[in-house]
Amino acid sequence: MNIIMPKFGMTMQKGTIVEWKKKPGEKVEKGEVIAIVESEKITGEIEAPASGILAEILHGVGDEVPVGEKIAIIETEE
Question: Could you give the domains of the chain?
Answer without folding.
Answer: 2-75 (2.40.50.100)
